[in-house]
Amino acid sequence: MLLIADSGSTKTTWCLIDRSTSRVNTIQTDGINPFYQDENAIYHTLSDQFGKISEPVDEIHFYGAGCANQKVNDIVGNALKMFFDTENIEVSSDLLAAARALCQHNRGIACILGTGSNSCYYNGNDIELHVSPLGFILGDEGSGAVLGKRLLADVLKNQLPAHIIRLFFEQYKTTRDEILENIYRIPFPNRYAAGFTTFISRHINDTSLEKLVTGEFELFFKRNILQYTDFDKLDIHFAGSIAYHFKKQLHSVMQNMNLRSGKILQAPMDGLIEYHMDKKI
After folding, report:
1. Which pLDDT tens digit goes with each residue over 66-98?
2. Fewer CB within 10 Å of terminal CB in the chain, N or C?
3. What are the phi and psi torsion angles at 25 (to 5°)?
4. Are 88 and 61 in contact (CB under 8 A)?
5. CA 150, CA 218: separation in Å to the nearest integer?
6. Contact, 194 vs 145, CB < 8 A?
7. Nearest-CA neighbor of 130 among 225, 260, 267?
8. What span, in angstroms and rounded, lies between the C-alpha atoms of 126 and 224?
């Protein structure tokens, strides 16, 4: 039995796969993030939510937000070992999950455009080069958080057409003070800002909003992708909700910059199943 997990801070999707029959069983639990949870907390999440398994799991691949170094990866690995009673465990980053799902065993540039943004040069097995995204304040170009932040700033500074500003306040029934409170005083302002990308998507035919999106995508490529080896010769692939829902704008920017468009996946799990069904640890 092969178990693959794709985990964020909010939820974890687990796929339990019988290699002999290719039967897949999908399970969801709360998110697992070793920056906020210790081994016991992760173990109790599994005990409470995963349920019983009729057959032993002999291979686990866990990909998660926060799994950025060996110290935190060991926290997850030890909890998985306790719960599933197996030693055959790999804990890796969500960026490696995207790279393997998108590129499989081929060289390429793999990107994440979701609430945050990230990218890497992938050599067909591992991440070889990585430009740090720097997060919501200093980077994350093209991400949902930054698109939402740009929208909020443009609304509050009257940089958008009057009818767009009116539609924004009609839809969200919020105020300037509430927006500033959520951005500057309440935890996770990136998640708050990213929530407004639904408004951008709904009104993307407005020139000003489409320009906002394409401008951020151009910055993502210029500040990240152009630093990678053979960026102009390799397919550039994407995973994440922003890439998926704004694929038209993404393709347009790549065409204008003479970059090669690759796959766009909303979530990496199907690609991870394909990758691991073809390869063992």
Report:
1. 788 899 899 999 999 999 989 999 999 999 999
2. C
3. -120, 125
4. no
5. 14
6. yes
7. 225
8. 18
Report whether pLDDT(29) > 70: yes
Contacts of 82 (CB under 8 A, 6+ apart): 39, 43
Q: Are strands 235-239 and 260-265 parallel, antiparallel or unpaired?
A: parallel
Chain Cα centroid distance, residue 123: 20
Main-chain phi, psi angles of 104, to 5 degrees:
55, -120
CA–CA distance, 149 with 159 (Å, rounded to integer): 13
d(Cα 148, Cα 124) in Å, to the nearest integer?
Answer: 34
Instruction: Give the contacts of 266 (CB within 8 A, at least 6 positions apart).
Output: 239, 240, 241, 244
pLDDT digits (tens, 9 = 90+) for 187-219: 889 889 999 999 999 999 999 999 999 999 999
| pTM (predicted TM-score) | 0.84
Residue with token string 């081929």: 106
Spatial distance between the Cα atoms of 194 and 175, rounded to a whole number of angstroms: 17
For residue 151, what is the enclosing H or E element?
Answer: helix 144-156
Q: What does the pLDDT look like over 123-160, one tens digit per residue?
A: 998 999 999 998 888 999 999 999 999 999 999 999 99
